[in-house]
Design goal:
The structure holds 4 protein chains of 4 kinds.
Chain A lengths: L2 H30 L7 H19 L2 H25 L4 H24 L16 E2 L4 H4 L5 H9 L2 E2 H19 L1 H11 L1 H6 L4 H27 L11 H11 L4 H20 L2 E3 L4 E3 H16 L21
Antiparallel strand pairs in A: 1-2, 3-4
Helix pairs in contact in A: 1-6, 1-7, 1-10, 1-11, 1-12, 2-3, 2-4, 2-10, 2-11, 3-4, 3-10, 7-8, 7-12, 8-10, 11-12, 11-13, 12-13
Chain B lengths: L5 H26 L4 H13 L2 H26 L7 H18 L5 H30 L3 H21 L23 H7 L12 H18 L1 H11 L1 H6 L4 H28 L10 H11 L4 H24 L5 H16 L1 H15 L7 H4 L3
Helix pairs in contact in B: 1-14, 2-3, 2-13, 3-8, 3-11, 3-12, 3-13, 4-5, 4-6, 4-11, 4-12, 5-6, 5-11, 8-9, 8-13, 9-11, 12-13, 12-14, 13-14
Chain D lengths: L5 E10 L2 E11 L4 E6 L5 H8 L7 E6 L2 E2 L5 H6 L2 E4 L11 H6 L8 H19 L14 H14 L4 E5 L7 H16 L3 E5 L3 H7 L2 E6 L2 E7 L5 H9 L17 E11 L5 E11 L3 E5 L6 H9 L5 E6 L2 E2 L9 H6 L2 E4 L3 H5 L6 H4 L11 E2 L2 E2 L1 H14 L16 H13 L5 E5 L7 H16 L3 E5 L3 H7 L2 E6 L2 E6 L6 H8 L4 H4 L3 H12 L4
Parallel strand pairs in D: 3-8, 3-9, 6-7, 7-8, 13-20, 13-21, 16-19, 19-20
Antiparallel strand pairs in D: 1-2, 1-4, 4-5, 9-10, 11-12, 11-14, 14-15, 17-18, 21-22
Classes of the chains: A mainly alpha, B mainly alpha, C alpha/beta, D alpha/beta.
The complex binds adenosine-5'-triphosphate (ATP) (2 copies) and magnesium ion (2 copies).
Chain lengths: 321, 371, 310, 528
């Protein structure tokens, strides 16, 4: 594997890690507030569809982005209604949302575009184009770091940089702001928040809506940044990998970046090499692709540190017995 | 005292939930420019209007009975097994290995062994998440999701390597003739009743037996009693000397085994070879079926037939109109949403209604009755 | 009334299925006839879909793609009065017509054009699912490229080993970018729906691309060198037509360069990229292949390729 | 005349069928410490939660410093200057002290300035009131005493001048409790008003100015502490009820059935709940275990019943019981002849959604009588249930009803019928008559005595002193995970037991409070 290969794989890693990262941070907000979300996949999928569909119709990717985010937030609202207001089962609600997204996107795609379950291919302004970071050209000559900066880091779409910036932003919001403090508290002990005179319901809705926003960005990136249009089931389990990354990261923003980059890297590698040949052992592609899931199980089993979810996660808050 | 009378709990609430799901589905159909009533007519006719429709409806229902029972048994132990998909995949592997390992002379010999193979493999796939939940406190929902993905990766790997048949497709060779299960066409044909050629096969009987078996297990055996007790209250189970570890393991093994049995119908009964995408989402449909069937085998059977009809009707709908088959997925999602997650939306107003019809509580019950 | 079962990927995959769909549409337009059409939803429903078509009285029933072979093998005998047509695979049943294409020949021409257009002396290939059929494309392509330039480097990647490899544009794009980084400046996509990602990435990266099955030149004018068109549309049209006239033959139908079953597309979208020199070379090679002067090796004949290692 | 700091008028609150508060009125003067005492479930916590806006009262008014105030939520209570330290702390375990303190009382959208200001104020407060805590420590690393200080600081940080503490000493060591009281005295000197809920009479006598006694959701009396005595309070608290007369012959104790030596238990949070308990129960006698809830009685029953692991030595009829591992479970205990009526029948003793007949065999469902091979003999179970229903006069008599559709008393009879019918060598029985009416109480008591007279050993745990007095042949009093002493009913009275339950022994009474404190502290050793 040459240096050029490595730069290429890094470049690919960043592209592939971006939707994971956005979805993972989305899940982080929701679960930190005590609302489990296995519906990341579904929200990403509706966002992918609506962003591509509206971008195709208007020719404006930013309008598409707005539509995608809006759609994901509507789904987030459904999850909020089910799990916060009606105190339903958060897991079942997540399952329902995934199915709803899988079905609805195809139905609407067929109805609007009659091209099977896809949107027309996007081009020009209907797609995010890549932007070059400052000095990319000038620095590309610097040995090693130059190409990494110019080729792996530079030249992605704006959403990639938004995703990367979302990591420190998430960290800052969670750990340096009043909102973040309350949000973390409501996922650990809603009673403490309630007795402190702060509305548990409002906080949880806010978290769930932020989750919608971020999954919206993730989906929009998939359809209008990474690909050029929507195809059926195009999230292809990324929502679940993001969930795995979230557990792997133990619900922490910087660790989430690490986990998503790792999982993106695994995908990039498996894209490139159909089997990994280490001389003595050959690792089949299927195994490389399954590695995020396997790693998550190992983490969950407590063999590599213990992943302790927010204590109040998964349970609706009920004041009176 | 129950807030709702029993009939309301087991019939009225699910009925309202289902009605809401169907109303919203109808709106969706209308939104994409089709007449919902016409669509309904096509679906009903396609699903139960002919022996062909019935054959497919019941064939799908057979799959859903197994996965629905799997979810239901776990629900009784208050475990949410969403790994039915992966367990069924592994069950398929077990069934395929059984069918391919021996040149079976007759299906009557192959079937019991295949049942065993499917159940064992499915159970084995459920065992790890169960152990992790019982001993290490890892959330079973997350681990079973992960195991779904790992199962499909494993199957892909085997189908492109060790098990691959010559040719291009990632599938095994066809099972031997002796492992073919008789279909409804043959069974009814033998007694002179005409029936369409459908994949409905003797596995349907196995599914009915499984329903009965689960009923016996849950309501007639000591283990079932313990599963139900554990599911209702873990402290009470501990008080009664019921081991949480043992029940978690056994309930999940049975659940996984049932999910694995689905392969007897789908893989042995229809596909007759192991292919990659053999479960067709039935593992997830099982969740909707168990929720709707209130985790009772009879309810599961009825809900499975309903979903079987939905699947078959949906296929016909796609054939006849431009409504894609995904309509069924939407209906399924809405059923899960309304019967599962939004249950409280229907239940609490209903409870209030019933409460106002009931006489007010005697004033100051517990405290005053003492000297 | 004929019936057509669109395979996984859908009739708007811009590629294989779309080609078949176009053929059926052309037949409708020209004859005013009617046909039944349905789209396969999943691998496991092949049998149900085939049977439903047959039960509904469709004749012939046309299925697309090699993945249908083993299913058709069991279904066809149950409907002796129905004729089935399968594309891309051979099913040996009395009521089945098997249509196969000489993809290696068309790919050979595409390879020649790629080699002539390449400035980096590196061209590449992105396949869909790794099956002999797709290796047949790659092998023909490599032979054509090497015929023009024996020193040329041909990079080949397959998207995957399962049917999902036909529908993974994101991965197709990633593979293309990786090939670009290895120097390729012409990429040939034989990957069904995955191909859209390949062509898109090629356009984004500013290299040339070669489409497959349908004429995909219009998708990215300016970067599409050509398309290796497999006239599946003709196969469908012919089958429907023959059935209408009551003279549909069963058995093997070979479509190759000589009967225009495979062609490299030349139109206004790629006119700027195709030099006269290229046209001449292609015409010459085509004539030589038809005449037997040039023997293009068919990978699937012995599972080996003289020009490319997999 | 000064306005009362707090005045409640006619507060009522019910939870479904349970009337937790009934027409309660109370006045608390500013600058005083006001105690509230009452048995478990008397409604103390509910009343204070209403005052703090955590629950909404069904009816009644709240006056704060003379003005009628609506308290729809905790925000309003905080604004009115009320702070509350809940019985179960409302702290975020993985937050630091500082973060917990500013939570909900931040100054602006960013934390930095809030935290800095809180740190300063915290230092000031802790100097002022001797409330020293490390502001950067995580709650989960702190002992309960420290956590409580954080709760108090939380209230003070919000400028509370009325502070409510719900059973603050339940989890404290005597030394910590003593420290707490010094803090409370300090607050009082500052002119703040303190409401202190407790079960411990000693504490009431020591720190409060006035005291209210609640009983069964109602306010019994409010008196000046100086004008009352522990004995009087105990009587008010327990109620002037006719002492239940249980006809029983003197005990004829036989061999030792249960012998417990040096038994210790930690709860799930790692807190030591039993600290070296030793006791014996003989054939034909009832050993009553008195004590305020939360002093280790529950844990003792749970260990003996096989629901919890422990350390020490327990023998049953001379052979040792496993206290850890697979054979320390409830099934094995039953096989060894131990029956158990758990304290919480709804959470443990019954499956509320099960039919009565299913519950009637619960725990004995593997008995060969109820099984035929792999299957359960449901007919046999139902037959057995019908017999029990008839014999124990359980109403309604339909075995097909679910447990939750029976009244509390009948639920209890069902459990007792199940456990007594086995003729166990040892019966563990917790709160046998909690929430049960007089008729049922008598019946249940008769059954317990009859079992004793059949030569069985009985270990009775109850928070009802008169029940202990009426039934027991010997009485042991538990306090803080230890046995404080043993008495026989004939030689003691409720007053003496009440004092023992509050952690005061005979010898303590002659000494000054300070000496008692020291004594207690020594006995408690270094805990926390
Ligand atoms: N936990 C509960 N959930 C629902 N309903 C209950 C519950 N407890 C009691 N009830 C209902 O309230 C009614 C009165 O119950 P309660 O225990 O107060 O009766 P009671 O008059 O004290 O009878 P008993 O003398 O048997 O204790 C019961 O008949 C039952 O229907
Ligand atoms: N949230 C609730 N839902 C239903 N019932 C409740 C609730 N909170 C309290 N109760 C019931 O109200 C009654 C009074 O409870 P409360 O907690 O006020 O008693 P308490 O005097 O504080 O007792 P303890 O000394 O045990 O703390 C009890 O019967 C209790 O079971
Ligand atoms: Mg209380
Ligand atoms: Mg009662």
């Amino acid at each position: 594997m040459s240096f050029v290969d490595i730069v290429q794989i890094l470049d690919s890693t960043i592209r592939l890690a971006t939707p994971l990262l956005l979805a993972c941070l989305a899940g982080l907000f929701s679960e930190r507030a005590g609302v489990f979300d296995i519906g990341l996949e579904g929200k990403m999928l509706v966002a992918a569809f609506f962003s591509a569909a509206v971008a195709a119709v208007t020719g404006q990717v930013w309008v598409g982005l707005l539509a995608g985010v809006g759609a994901a937030m509507v789904f987030a609202l459904i999850h909020g209604l089910a799990s916060i207001t009606f105190r339903g089962d958060q897991l079942i609600s997540g399952v329902a949302i995934n199915f709803l997204a899988a079905g609805m996107t195809v139905l609407i795609a067929q109805d609007w575009f009659a091209q099977g379950s896809r949107t027309p291919a996007l081009s020009g302004d209907a797609r995010f184009s890549s932007i070059d970071l400052p000095f990319a050209e000038a620095l590309s000559g610097v040995p090693y770091l130059g190409p990494i900066y110019a080729e792996a880091l530079s030249g992605h779409t704006i959403l990639v940089y938004i995703a990367l910036l979302a990591v420190p932003a998430t960290w800052y919001i969670l750990f340096r702001t009043r909102f973040g403090l309350r949000l973390r508290a409501v996922g650990e002990n809603p009673g403490a928040v309630d007795t402190a005179g702060v509305s548990v319901t409002r906080l949880r809705y806010a978290a769930v809506m932020i989750c919608g926003l971020l999954t919206g960005l993730a989906g929009a990136y998939l359809a209008t940044g990474l690909a050029a249009g929507f195809t059926k089931d195009m999230t292809a389990g990324r929502g679940f990998i993001a969930l795995a990354a979230l557990i792997f990261a133990k619900w922490r923003p910087w660790h989430a970046l690490g986990a998503c980059l790792l999982f993106g890297f695994l995908q990039a590698v498996s894209n490139r090499y159909s089997t990994l040949d280490f001389g003595i052992v050959q690792i089949p592609n299927a195994f490389v692709l399954a590695l995020p899931y396997i790693l998550t199980v190992v983490i969950l089993a407590g063999f590599v540190g213990k992943a302790i979810p927010p204590r109040a996660g998964g349970q609706p808050y009920v004041k009176e017995r | 005292m129950d807030k709702l009378p029993r009939w309301a709990d087991i019939a009225l609430v699910p009925f309202i939930n289902l009605a809401l799901a169907l109303i919203v589905s109808g709106l969706v159909v209308a939104l994409i420019g089709q007449d919902p009533f016409e669509a309904l007519a096509i679906m009903v006719n396609g699903a139960v209007g002919s022996s062909y429709g019935w054959g497919y409806t019941l064939y799908y229902a057979t799959n859903f009975v197994f996965t629905g029972l799997a979810v239901a048994v776990a629900f009784h132990a208050s475990l949410f097994n969403i790994g039915g998909e992966g367990q069924a995949q592994l069950g398929a592997l077990g069934v395929a290995l059984v069918c391919l390992a021996v040149p079976w002379p007759h299906w009557t010999l192959a079937l019991p062994v295949a049942i065993l193979g499917g159940a064992l493999f499915g159970a084995a796939w459920a065992a790890i998440p169960a152990y992790l939940q019982a001993r290490r406190g890892s959330h079973i929902v997350i681990t079973t999701i992960m195991f779904n993905f790992i199962a499909s990766a494993l199957l892909v790997y085997l189908l492109i390597s060790a098990l691959k048949a010559p040719g291009m497709a990632p599938e095994t060779v066809r099972f031997p003739e002796g492992a073919r299960l008789p279909t409804a066409l043959e069974v009814f044909g033998a007694i002179g009743i005409p029936f369409s050629r459908t994949p409905l096969n003797v596995s349907f009987i196995v599914a009915l037996i499984a329903c009965w078996g689960v009923w016996v297990l849950i309501w007639r055996t000591r283990l079932g009693y313990e599963i139900r007790a554990f599911g209702r209250s873990e402290p009470a189970a501990r008080y009664a000397g019921i081991s949480p570890f043992r029940i978690t393991m056994l309930a999940m093994l049975i659940s996984g085994g049932l999910a694995g049995l689905m392969a007897v119908n789908a893989v042995m009964g229809e596909q007759e070879r192991l292919i990659q995408d053999n479960v067709l989402g039935a593992g997830f449909v099982g969740i909707a079926v168990a929720l709707m069937g209130r985790s009772h085998p009879v309810g599961v059977l009825l809900a499975a037939i309903l979903f079987g009809a939905l699947y078959q009707g949906g296929a016909e709908l796609e054939f006849e109109t431009s409504v894609p088959r995904e309509m069924v997925v939407v209906i399924q999602a809405l059923v899960i949403l309304f019967t599962g997650a939004l249950d409280g939306m229907v239940r609490s107003p209903l409870e209030r209604v019933f409460l106002t019809f009931r006489k007010q509580p005697k004033p100051g019950l517990a405290p005053e009755t003492r000297p | 009334e004929p019936g057509l079962i669109i395979d996984l990927g859908g009739k708007f995959d811009k590629s294989f299925n779309e080609s078949a769909f176009t053929g059926a549409q052309r037949w409708v337009e020209e004859t005013g006839g009617d046909y039944m059409e349905t789209e396969l939803a999943s691998e496991a429903q092949r049998e149900q879909t085939m049977r439903r078509m047959a039960e509904r009285g469709a004749n012939p029933v046309m299925v697309l793609g090699f993945a249908n072979a083993s299913t058709l093998e069991t279904v066809a005998p149950d409907y002796p009065d129905t004729t089935f047509v399968i594309v891309d695979a051979v099913v040996d049943q009395p009521n089945v017509q098997s249509v196969v294409f000489a993809e290696h020949e068309g790919s050979y021409l595409a390879g020649m054009m790629a080699a002539m257009a390449s400035e980096t002396d590196t061209v590449s290939f992105v396949g869909g699912m790794d099956v002999p059929l797709i290796r047949k494309f790659a092998c023909g392509y490599a032979q054509g490229a090497k015929a023009v330039n024996p020193d040329i480097e041909v990079i080949s990647n397959m998207t995957g080993t399962t049917p999902s490899a036909w529908n993974d544009p994101v991965k197709g794009g990633e593979l293309t970018r990786s090939q670009v980084s290895q120097g390729s400046d012409v990429v040939y996509a034989a990957a069904g729906g995955t191909g859209t990602g390949v062509l898109q990435a090629a356009a984004d990266e500013g290299i040339m691309a070669i489409g497959v099955d349908s004429n995909q030149n219009y998708m990215h004018p300016g970067t599409m060198l050509t398309s290796m068109v497999k006239r599946v549309d003709n196969a469908v049209y012919d089958a429907f037509e023959a059935a209408q006239n009551g003279n549909l033959e069963t058995g093997l139908q070979e479509k190759n360069l000589s009967n225009d079953g495979v062609v490299v597309a030349m139109d206004e979208f790629n006119a700027d990229l195709v030099t006269e020199e290229m046209t001449a070379a292609v015409e010459q090679a085509k004539a030589d292949i038809v005449s037997g002067e040039i023997q293009v090796h068919d990978y699937s004949s012995d599972d080996s390729c003289p020009a490319l290692d997999f | 005349m000064t306005e009362p700091a707090i005045e409640l008028k006619g507060i009522s609150k019910s939870f479904g069928q349970v009337q937790a508060n009934r027409n309660i009125s109370i006045r608390v003067m500013p600058g005083t410490i006001h105690g509230i005492i009452g048995e478990n479930g008397a409604g103390k916590s509910t009343l204070m939660s209403i005052l703090y806006g955590f629950y909404k009262a069904d009816s009644g008014d709240v006056f704060i410093r003379g003005t009628r105030t609506e308290i729809p939520d905790s925000q309003a209570a905080i604004a009115a200057g009320i702070g509350m330290v809940f019985q179960h702390f409302k702290l975020v375990q993985n937050f630091t002290v500082l973060e917990n303190i500013v939570l909900g009382a931040e100054e602006g959208p960013l934390l930095r300035s809030s935290l800095a200001r809180a740190r300063k104020l915290l230092k000031q407060l802790s100097d002022e009131y001797e409330l020293h805590v490390d502001p950067d420590a995580r709650i989960e690393d702190l002992g309960v005493g420290m956590q409580q200080r954080v709760e108090i600081l939380k209230a003070l940080y919000r400028r509370a001048d009325i502070l409510i503490l719900d059973e603050p000493t339940g989890v404290l060591t005597p030394a910590e409790a003593d420290h707490l009281f010094r803090i409370l005295q300090g607050l009082k000197r500052e002119g703040k008003t303190v409401i202190l809920i407790t079960h411990k009479l000693r504490e009431i006598m020591e720190v409060t100015d006035t005291v209210s006694v609640m009983r069964r959701g109602e306010m019994e009396a409010t008196v000046n502490t100086a004008e009352t005595s522990p004995e009087e309070l105990a009587e008010l608290m327990v109620g002037r009820k006719v002492l239940l007369r249980v006809d029983k012959a003197p005990a004829t104790p036989g061999d030792v059935v249960l012998e417990v030596e040096n038994l210790s238990v930690r709860d799930d949070a790692g807190v030591e709940r039993l600290r070296g308990v030793s006791l014996r129960v003989r054939r034909g006698e009832i050993l009553g275990l008195a004590g305020v809830a939360g002093n280790g009685q529950s844990e003792l029953l749970e260990v003996l019943g096989g629901m919890r692991e422990g350390r020490g030595r327990v023998t049953m009829n001379g052979t040792a019981l496993d206290l850890t591992g697979a054979r320390s479970d409830a099934r094995t205990r039953r096989q060894r002849g131990i029956a158990h009526v758990p304290e919480d029948r709804q959470r443990e003793g019954l499956i509320m959604e099960f039919h009565a007949w299913e519950n009637a065999g619960f725990g004995y469902h593997d008995d060969p009588r109820f099984n035929r091979g792999l299957l359960m003999d449901n007919e046999a179970l139902r037959e057995d249930a019908r017999a029990k229903i008839a014999r124990f006069d359980i109403r309604p008599t339909d075995p097909w009803l679910t447990a939750k559709s029976f009244s509390g008393g009948n639920q209890q009879k069902l459990v007792i019928a199940r456990e007594l019918e086995r003729e166990p060598d040892l019966l563990l029985i917790g709160q046998p008559t909690r929430g049960v009416d007089i008729g049922a109480i008598e019946f249940i008591h008769e059954q317990i005595v009859a079992l004793r007279d059949r030569g069985k050993a009985i270990l009775l745990v109850s928070v009802e002193l008169d029940e202990i007095m009426a039934l027991s042949d010997r009485i042991a009093v538990m306090f803080d995970g230890r046995i404080m002493g043993e008495r026989t009913p004939g030689e003691t009275n409720e007053g003496e037991l009440g004092l023992l339950m509050a952690g005061i022994t005979e010898t303590d009474r002659d000494h000054s409070v300070a000496e008692i404190e020291a004594n207690l502290a020594r006995r408690a050793g270094k805990t926390a």
